[in-house]
Design brief:
Length: 403
């Protein structure tokens, strides 16, 4: 178990709040690059930005080509990953989850009398982001606020979405017409964390009711592994967040909050990783959940609570890597296992996403924004050098200060 890091800032222009570049494709309020936009912004619509997933066997390889575009990976290697999707009939649940989330957001907005249409587009499969942006522009909705279906800071979970926004606005020729801001990374918003607190509480209660001692329960907070070079560069460089940057620090901080909210004592926990896809020679964040599970019987552990802390819904990495592989690993080593829920369309979570939009609509001061860890509230406008992809360098990215 690790200790939550604290934020320490160097004295620099970036640390003091000054900017060193421009904010691309931004609303007027965000264009000068403040950390937190504390003046009201009149948005025309919400862009729900998803990862995307195949919806049939014939979609699987084309989808994986999209995910790995530019990396030159042959179809033979892609087929090694494709079997996860083929196991479920070639259908990823992620698109259906986003349809449900879009509908839930629309219902919440309507219930609160907020007139903001929701446009949904994906990075890697239909409906694509360019379709959503073009649809919004055609309807006259040109000042957009984006909700990405990812809560944490890293290249793949934040900056890549911002680069896609910039790419789409450039490719569609709408860069001078449409602006796209982005809600802050919401890893420590109470509405997101709520699901995990409740899930761990229910799982531990179930196990103890069945006679498992708290000392024999281990909570495993699982998130997607990423290359260590990406982890190190996650978040802005002027923050001292530990060896593996904001990505690991944010997960550790949230896990500590979840465990502090529990009603029983004596339950240990670990942050673990899953879904590694890189070559063996490339270091990725560890330990892998399956490797750690193998060691637990020797520590007197009888049951594991698997918490998909890095995920907002039950998509493929949850259904395959946790519900199939990690659950099988636990059974093979004589451990009982319970996998807790993801936020999905939990009403508290949906309400929180709308609240994040309203922070920007109302220009809510940072001091009044909810955050359950000492790391937040995170930045509205990403800082210079945030979440670099070392393999490709910095590309134009909306909703952040250059580069």
């Amino acid at each position: 178990m690790s200790t939550q890091p604290t934020v320490s800032e160097h004295t620099s222009a970036a640390a003091s709040g000054a900017t060193t570049g421009e904010v691309l494709f931004a609303s007027a309020a965000a264009s000068t690059g403040p950390r937190h936009v504390e003046v009201p912004t009149a948005y025309d619509g919400i862009l729900l930005a998803g990862f995307g997933g195949p919806e049939g066997q014939e979609d699987v390889i084309p989808f994986l080509r999209n995910v790995t575009r530019g990396r030159g990976i042959p179809d033979e290697r892609l087929e090694e990953v494709a079997h996860h999707y083929r196991h479920f009939g070639g259908v990823s649940p992620i698109n259906e989850h986003n349809r449900e989330l879009k509908a839930a957001l629309e219902a919440e907005l309507a219930a609160r009398g907020i007139d903001l249409p929701v446009y949904w587009g994906n990075r890697n499969w239909a409906p694509y982001l360019n379709e959503a942006v073009e649809q919004a522009e055609a309807a006259g909705d040109r000042t957009l606020i984006a909700i990405a279906t990812s809560a944490y800071s890293s290249f793949s979970s934040c900056r890549q979405y911002r680069e896609d926004f910039a790419r789409v606005l450039t490719e569609t020729g709408l860069g001078g017409t449409v602006t796209i801001d982005k809600v802050r990374p919401f890893f420590d918003h109470p509405a997101f964390v709520h699901t995990f607190i409740e899930g761990v509480r229910d799982a531990v209660a179930t196990l103890t009711a069945d006679g498992v001692a708290t000392s024999a329960i281990r909570v495993l907070f699982s998130t997607h592994s990423i290359p260590t070079v990406d982890a190190t560069r996650s978040g802005p460089s002027f923050l001292e967040l530990g060896e593996h940057g904001a990505y690991e620090a944010q997960h550790l901080a949230v896990a500590e909050v979840v465990m502090a909210a529990q009603e029983v004592e004596g339950v240990a926990w670990n942050l673990v990783y899953q879904s590694r896809s890189g070559p063996p020679t490339q270091p990725w964040l560890e330990p892998d959940i399956n490797d750690l599970i193998e060691t637990l019987p020797g520590e007197g552990v009888e049951a594991v609570v698997i918490v998909p802390l890095g995920f907002v819904s039950d998509h493929m990495e949850v259904m395959w890597d946790l519900d199939e592989e990690a659950t099988e690993s636990a059974a093979e080593h004589g451990l009982r296992s319970i996998r807790t829920p993801t936020p999905g369309i939990d009403p508290t979570y949906v309400t929180g996403l709308v609240d994040l939009v309203l922070e920007r609509v109302n220009g809510t001061p940072a001091a009044q924004r909810p955050a359950v860890t000492e790391l937040g509230p995170w930045f509205d406008v990403c800082r210079p050098g945030c979440c670099e992809n070392i393999r490709a360098g910095f590309k134009p990215a909306a909703a952040g200060v250059v580069p």
